[in-house]
Amino acid sequence: MKLDKKKIVLLCICLFLVSVFAYTTHIQLVGADSGFDSSYDSSSLSSSGGGSSGGIDISFLIYLCLEHPIFALIVVVIIVLVVASSSKKSKKILEDALNSKLELLNVNDYDEEKRLEIEAFNIYKEIQFAWMNFDEEKIRNLTTDEMYNMYLMQLDTLKVKNQKNIMHDIKYISSKVKSVYHENGQETILINMTVSCYDFIIDTKTNKVLRGVASKLNIYNYDLTFVKSINEKQEIKTCPQCGAPVEANNSGKCEYCKSTLVSSEYTLILSKKKMISQK
To answer: What is the rounded CA–CA span in Å between residue 161 and residue 167?
Structure first.
């Protein structure tokens, strides 16, 4: 069959529409993560009723398929390829997640302030891994009583429903200490952190994905609050950056070089986790 210019243009339009359609059918904001801080139920694309929503005109796509059988064949082939590829990737991610082991970053590879941020990431990752594997004892050791009790109730809900929140391939992207507050022998440290991971819920009996998209990589930005107790041995006498004597203050900053002052011998406990954004 010889295609004239008009048919070639229609074919290009069809391919574009089908590609967009296949892509959008797989887009969904996912992310329960520990504490269910994000949402599985929202869509990253939305359409409004009435008028032109700027979305895909399915009726036009159907018309092209009916008028030109070759277009219909192309539509079917593209959709099958997209679905098959997504299914294969999802299966691989699930298998890797179920067989994964916890791997933490080496804090000794960084300077003092960055070591704190990496330690915070490691603790966040440990909590997520414990959450995924229903390791309540590990969560208990890494969170405050309030956080632990919240997690415990939510894990009990997952157990009753025979569900499991898979959080896999958690990777560190960036972080920054926003504030450090010293009071009554305790430091409260607020860190903004960005990570990436796969995040979805499965049925524990069938391993079927119930919520979320297994093949979708998510990017989460959090404000994480940690607390730690400090004793006389851990108190900072001189600034680790400039060597200046440290006067007693609640700001958590060196008065000379303005670097963040945090004890090197720290054991952080997560006290609050706030989702800032997800992509």
So the answer is: 18
